[in-house]
Design a protein that fits this description.
Layout: H1 6-9, E1 28-29, H2 33-38, E2 43-46, E3 49-52, H3 59-68, E4 70-74, E5 79-84, H4 88-92, E6 107-114, E7 120-128, E8 132-137, H5 142-152, E9 158-161, E10 165-171, H6 175-182, E11 193-199, E12 202-208, E13 216-222, H7 226-234, E14 239-241, H8 244-253, H9 292-301, E15 305-312, E16 323-325, E17 331-341, E18 346-354, E19 363-368, E20 371-378
Parallel strand pairs: 1-3, 4-14
Antiparallel strand pairs: 2-3, 4-10, 5-8, 5-9, 6-7, 7-8, 10-13, 11-12, 12-13, 15-18, 15-20, 16-17, 16-19, 17-18, 19-20
Length: about 400
């Protein structure tokens, strides 16, 4: 299908409009900008950077290629930093609900920066090493995140922002074979781990996680060597470049949250379905991070609403903000992400709805342009995860 057919193939609620003019935008460029242009990427402003929303093959083709082989993503706009000090893991635990001190060396944890009200400032990945904790945060939040972290670390600790590094992701069932061609030790890595690897003579820091539901890697590389590394990986026929549009549809099928939409300052981790990311010892009122008492109560009492998956009947797309209705036509929640899932082969959505209606299989309706359209609450992910455990 043509990459210019936005109506037919656009599964992404939150991908930027490809027609947005970037001429006058105050935006930065990642180290891979020239490569994106050379590959025919349609560049748009996103989180303060010019980023490719899609390439000539189109969003649907990119999405399906990542599920079948391997996709290369430029995520250099995200923030990279490290916390140093005598016990960096314990220092980070004063700001997040995740169990960081329980991590082994080179092991990663998904967690959140929380507010005193129990809301989510941002979600992030933290990796523990012997002398520091390595962080990756969202692009749109990174300036605020880093200022917040630096201002609230215990005495004797510091935050070092790594502005001189780029970040490249390789995702899909062929990712291991592709990367291990250049760095054999990559094959032995498991999900949620990180290690230093030499990739064709380039010193990199590589993690194995992902935002697509597929197996894959994230490669932190010196910015001045990012273009060479990306071109090396793209020289493999199994790898194609993937833009923001397919990145969004892949993560939606995987049932993963997008900050600012599915989670934000007004949501807490329990109602967001992220309670699994908080160890039992941290589910207590005196756990020592912002909002611990509020979040502990949410575990004890149960939330009044929950994040759920939705399967609209037919082919109607439920976009962000669509009201979810009960059998009497009353509004019981709203869609936070929605679009067409190319691998799911139909419309899918995520929403917050009243907790008593959150069980999979519950019938609800969606207010689409003033007309109630049937939908069913569904378990997530919509497409099974294929991480290497």
């Amino acid at each position: 299908m043509s990459g210019t057919d936005k109506t037919a193939v656009s599964p992404a609620t939150h991908a930027p409009d490809p027609e947005t003019s970037a001429a006058d935008a105050d935006v930065a460029r990642t180290p891979l900008y020239d490569l994106h242009v050379a590959l025919g990427g349609r560049m748009v402003p996103f989180a303060g950077y010019l980023m490719p929303v899609q390439y000539p093959d189109g969003i649907k083709a990119e999405h399906l290629h990542c599920r079948a082989a391997a996709g290369l993503f430029d995520v250099s706009h995200m923030g990279q930093a490290r916390i140093t000090g005598p016990d960096a893991a314990a220092a980070l635990e004063t700001l997040v609900p995740g169990d960081i001190t329980g991590l082994g060396t080179g092991r990663m944890r998904y967690t959140q920066l929380t507010t005193p009200e129990g809301g989510i400032r941002d979600d992030l990945m933290a990796t523990r090493f012997d002398d520091h904790v390595f962080l990756v945060v969202n692009a749109a939040c990174k300036a605020d995140d880093f200022a917040h972290i630096a201002a609230h670390l215990p005495a004797g600790h510091a935050l070092e922002v790594l502005d001189d590094r780029a970040l490249i992701a390789v995702q899909g069932p062929a990712a291991e074979a592709v990367l291990s061609t250049h760095a054999p030790d990559a094959a032995a890595m498991t999900f949620m781990s990180m290690m230093a690897l030499d990739i064709a003579g380039i010193a990199c820091l590589v993690s194995r996680s992902g935002y697509t539901g597929e197996d894959g890697y994230e490669i932190s590389v010196p910015a001045d060597q990012a273009d060479a590394l990306a071109r090396l990986l793209l020289a493999d026929d199994r790898v194609k470049p993937i833009g923001l549009g397919a990145r969004d549809s892949l993560r939606l099928e995987a049932g993963l949250c997008l900050y600012g939409h599915d989670i934000d300052l007004a949501t807490n981790p329990v109602e967001a379905g992220l309670g699994w990311s908080i160890a039992k010892r941290r589910r207590v009122a005196d756990a020592g991070y912002p909002g611990a008492a509020v979040i502990a109560s949410a575990f004890t009492d149960g939330p009044t609403r929950r994040r759920v998956g939705l399967l609209p009947d037919g082919r109607v797309i439920a976009r962000e903000g669509t009201a979810v209705l009960d059998g009497d036509g009353a509004t019981v929640g709203h869609v936070t992400s929605g679009g067409f899932g190319p691998s799911a082969d139909g419309p899918i959505a995520m929403a917050y709805i009243r907790a008593d209606l959150a069980a999979a299989g519950t019938a609800v309706s969606l207010d689409i342009r003033g007309k109630a359209r049937p939908a069913t609450v569904a378990a997530m992910p919509f497409v099974p995860h294929r991480y290497k455990r």
